[in-house]
């Protein structure tokens, strides 16, 4: 067990990434309708031209553009209508000079036609002919075959987060399922003799357990599956047994609590004992988040994380490590951060990276970021905030007017 | 049925809002663990001081700050330890000058103490006394009763979106459930003789139905419940019956398709017939999104929406109307938009508000927004985009270098 010095966030991340390895991620095929917000686990190639026929963008007449040259409001050209293409059917005619075919929006453009005149510019002349009162250029009002997507081209790369529009594009290609990365399966354990569950009786000096609820919600927000959640007393054997049980069903066991001296050691000892080859990070140069412990059991490939007991710190570290790990392993890009101008001076924290909680105040052409101050660990500092900025290690603090990037949470 | 002119987006929203009314929203009490991402339906007041006892922020000794005056590395002061407060229990002693009590992080500060000295600055001197090698000021390392949240104060206002930190704060107060706004219950119907379902055979000229999948995903992304989804042919009676059935179980029936002339009228007629007192918006001055139809059946209080057939336009209008309506009725604030600098010239659209799809390119202190161009209705214009900017009605277009706001989707 390395006890001597804390890791920087980057060191801890690097160790964590190496300890679990790329192959830690499981892949699963899901029906398209369950793919929302999942991350694609493989490159996805187009199997069809989209559209796979030349399609009209308007209700109108498919023509040869050349035939409409010179047509205008007072000088129509006359074309013979040789087909009325129904939506969803194949166009059979071949447009030759002097002829045209009616095509509805989304309908197939017959061979020989190179453009479409909107019905608004046409008028029935006799039973077989229309008068066209406007000229079109070639390609007008037509979507070419493969113009939206070419067959065989890369549709979406591995690591793409699937939004509604990706689902639409996959449906257009006829996909009914996709391969996505499995969610992390997480167990959440809160330890502390002072903890009681909300809704139960409480003795003076006890507090309601916050971390179980808050970390469960945070895990779910990021798409993870919470397979068990437990509140336990600060007893070595109970904690060890609970962690062992959780390891059987989880990719990751998160233990929060143990923020006082003796307890910290207990969580570290349990992790060290259950995760061979032992704890590799014991303390993080992060504010909040110092009392963080990491170990990976190589045999069961279970990640064990000891989080700080302070709810705010526990949530911050959860964002910085498990959430980061999922993004790293899936190749997903983070939600874009928001640029803002800092409103207030913020002292640096020598030797530690710091998460600064801020409120975003909309201004003329951007945001002002107002730091939310308060004693560390107060939940209200987090509920009053819209997001956080990361202030780098050893940075000498930030001054009013400096630009920062805010990650919304 | 008003057929003569299209509504601006604002007019359509105003009519929609008036037609459904505030009381359209249903309220439901949900267990705290199901409250994530829901919107609070009532102001939520604190029922407890948080913390409800003076709490130590460190492992240390609760003291009278005055007793530590002048203490330093080479000049300790000596204090008698009169209690060892266990976590989760009531402190019983009363600190008087010359005495102190051990308190772990999160433990209760005994009466009479006004600050806490970290154990790192203390040393056991004999069996009853410690040597203190550092001075503290009053209030140091203590969280005062109610400092995080005062009993009776407004914890969260109606309209607050419940994030993990709100769940944490509610758990701290002992809440096990909260009243939230019910999700919209939506039925999604796609019409079109050209549509086949992904995974089935397809004739030449037919296309896979995109809108059912894409709109379902979009609805779910915004927390709505999709209670039915159907693809139907362009037959008046079938469409009417399908809409009628859907109205029995839904707050809102969304019909997409009917983008060609004859079909548009069909959807409008069905809505006009089923939603007394009839269609109130027929056409929207929005690009994309013109062929939009709105009606509310006053008796069943069901909203009927005819969306454009083009998937991109259908999704855009869904964001602009149902999603907007939910935010309007719940009082929820939108996710913050992202300020960016436009990279490229964009022509305006006389008489229509326009949604411009953009890619966000991170730059030094903010983003460049690169317009994603392409023929209207191409799904790739939406999959390549990170979000959209709204370009106002009659605006003469935008030029490279102008600041815009981008809503990420």
Which assembly state applies to the chains in this document? homodimer
Straight-line distance between termini of chain A: 34 Å
- Helix content class of chain A: 10-25%
Q: How are the strands of the biggest sheet of chain A laid out side by side?
A: 7-4-6-5-9-8
Counting DSSP E segments of at least 2 residues, the number of strands of chain A comes to 26
Contiguous low-pLDDT stretches of chain A (5 residues minimum) are none
Tally of contiguous helical segments of chain A:
8
Interface with most residues: A-B, 97 and 96 residues
Which structural category fits the helices and strands of chain A? alpha/beta
- 3D shape of chain A: elongated
Look at the structure and give the mean pLDDT of chain A.
93
How much of the sequence lies in strands of chain A comes to 25-35%
Describe this structure in words.
The first copy, chain A, has 409 residues and is of the alpha/beta class. Chain A has eight helices and 26 strands. Chain A has helices at 9-20, 65-68, 164-172, 211-221, 236-249, 261-274, 311-330, 379-383, and strands at residues 27-31, 44-45, 55-56, 60-63, 77-84, 99-103, 115-118, 122-124, 129-132, 142-143, 154-156, 177-181, 185-191, 195-196, 207-208, 225-232, 252-256, 279-282, 286-287, 293-297, 302-307, 338-342, 353-362, 367-371, 387-391, 403-408. In chain A, strands 7-4-6-5-9-8 form a six-stranded mixed beta sheet. The first copy, chain A, has a six-stranded mixed beta sheet with strand order 16-13-17-21-20-18, with helices on both faces. In chain A, strand 20 and strand 21 (302-307) form a beta hairpin. The first copy, chain A, is elongated and about 95 Å long. The model of chain A has no long low-confidence stretch (mean pLDDT 93). At the A-B interface, helix 3, strand 15, helix 4, helix 7 and helix 8 of A face helix 3, strand 15, helix 4, helix 7 and helix 8 of B.
């Amino acid at each position: 067990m390395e006890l001597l010095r804390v890791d920087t966030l980057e060191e801890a991340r690097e160790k964590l990434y190496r300890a679990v390895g790329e192959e830690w991620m499981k892949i699963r095929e899901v029906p398209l309708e369950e793919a929302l917000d999942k991350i694609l686990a493989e490159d996805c190639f187009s199997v069809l031209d989209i559209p796979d026929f030349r399609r009209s963008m308007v209700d109108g007449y498919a023509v040869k553009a050349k035939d409409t040259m010179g047509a205008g409001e007072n000088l129509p050209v006359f074309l013979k209508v040789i087909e009325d293409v129904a939506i969803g059917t194949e166009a059979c005619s071949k447009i030759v000079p002097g002829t045209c075919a009616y095509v509805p929006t989304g309908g197939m453009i017959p061979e020989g036609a190179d453009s479409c005149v909107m019905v608004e510019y046409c008028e029935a002349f006799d039973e077989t002919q229309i008068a066209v009162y406007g000229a079109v250029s070639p390609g007008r009002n037509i979507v070419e075959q493969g113009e939206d997507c070419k067959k065989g081209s890369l549709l979406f790369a591995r690591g793409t987060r699937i939004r509604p529009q990706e689902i639409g594009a996959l449906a257009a290609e006829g996909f009914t399922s996709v391969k996505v990365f499995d969610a992390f399966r997480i167990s959440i354990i809160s330890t502390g003799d002072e903890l009681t569950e909300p809704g139960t009786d409480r003795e003076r000096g006890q507090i309601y357990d916050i971390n179980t609820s808050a970390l469960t919600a945070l895990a779910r927000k990021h798409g993870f599956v919470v397979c068990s959640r437990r509140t336990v007393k600060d007893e070595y054997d109970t904690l060890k047994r609970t962690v062992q049980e959780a390891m059987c069903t989880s990719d990751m066991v998160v233990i929060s609590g143990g923020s006082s001296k003796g307890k910290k050691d207990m969580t570290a000892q349990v992790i060290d004992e259950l995760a061979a080859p032992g704890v590799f990070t014991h303390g993080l140069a992060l504010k909040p988040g110092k009392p963080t412990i990491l170990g990976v059991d190589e045999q069961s490939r279970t990640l064990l994380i000891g989080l700080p007991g302070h709810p705010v710190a526990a949530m911050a570290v959860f964002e910085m490590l498990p959430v980061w790990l999922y993004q790293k392993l899936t190749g997903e890009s983070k939600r874009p951060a928001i640029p803002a101008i800092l409103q207030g001076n913020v002292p640096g924290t020598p030797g530690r990276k710091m998460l600064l909680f801020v409120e975003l105040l909309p201004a003329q052409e951007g945001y002002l970021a107002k730091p939310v101050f308060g004693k560390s660990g107060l939940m209200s500092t987090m509920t009053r905030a819209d997001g956080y900025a990361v202030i780098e290690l050893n940075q000498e603090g930030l001054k009013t007017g400096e630009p920062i990037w805010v990650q919304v949470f």
